[in-house]
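Convert to structure. Protein one:
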Amino acid sequence: MRIVQTAILAAVLSLAAPAATVVNFDDLPDDPFGAAVPAGYGGLNWGVDFGVWDSSSSAIYPPHSFNNVLLGNRLNQSGYAAMPVYFVTPGAEFLGAWFSGSGTALFDMYFSGNLVATSSSLNLNSTSTYLASGYSGPVDEVRLTADRGQFVMDDFTYNPAGTAVPEPGTALLMGLGLAAVSMLSRRRA
């Protein structure tokens, strides 16, 4: 009986997924004009197009968590150009981020220089809203593209490389296998 309990416990523990990394920018100093994001912050290298900003007093740019958000700083005649974010360790699974403001935003995801996925487009408003990547494969670069609207981004979320979540069927098969081994060992004893 003890072996069966151990097998069940092992199966349940294998279902526990590693926690995602959430980069929220709240430990960085803010600046009225958008302070630069340090290289390697949160396991990412941020393009020069992003700046840290305290949006707690803004009704149209509310943060998702706490006060600091990223403000996009690259406006050109056509709107915002693609603003890159590079993973320090390639192969991460990018999950998404929270946005508020006006206009639209979307993500293009790259791996080894190739476009591997594009998220849906999000219409921004004064409610902080999550834009999911919609892609579960490895990436080493995410490019944020937005139109001429003004926006802020918060809680950039990803699973680091090498932390793939096991499929529930895998854990179930492992648990059943351990239970079978324990039953066979009890029969022999």
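Protein two, convert as well:
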Amino acid sequence: MQSLWVEKYRPRTIGDLVLPEQYKKDFEICIERKEIADLLLFGPPGSGKTSLGLILASKNGIIEHQDNVLFINGSAKETRGIGFVSSVIEPYLKVPPSGNDRYKIVFIDEADYLCLDGETEVKILENDKVVNMKIKELKNKSEIKVMSVNLENNNIEEDFAIYVDSGFAEMFEVELEDGTKVICSEKHPFFIMDSDEKLIEKQLRELSEDSKIVLLEEHT
């Protein structure tokens, strides 16, 4: 069965990743001890965030049983709201891990699309008083004052928040030549052949009907 070139050549171990040596050592220690803290991986597309997360959540990382990993696409409309946390993630984490694994992992890819429901209340400062206000009511405010902690001196200080309306990420079903179907957002990367028969990476939204997505056995 064929699958995407990018999946065939995705790194499978920490040693396969292109990372600073100190980072590799830190993650290898986590794997050796079977211990890991909560992680937020940030960086440009193709920098290895997803690959690192998949390694840590596999038998080459700290998890033996895949039942102990919940994979979530953070850009999907059904999973990106706070309601999904209470209805799916919390019940999943309340069940103890299977086998000898010490942890359960919630793996959220494209987590930058996660958002709070507009009805969610947050605390802001108005007229030097702390008040509760729904997120949707902040949309037209030119200035949003909040309380923050200065990490340099641990003092509580006034700060400013920014309202960001991220909208919804539309999901698409892409069927490959071998019949394989991929569910992804418009920013999902694919490898294709350009006019010079060279491999290049493009997002789904950049592809045309005549774009040739490279499959595994087509390129080795």
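The beta strands are 69-73, 105-109, 121-126, 129-134, 144-150, 155-161, 171-175, 181-185, 189-193, 199-203. The chain is about 15% helix and 25% strand.
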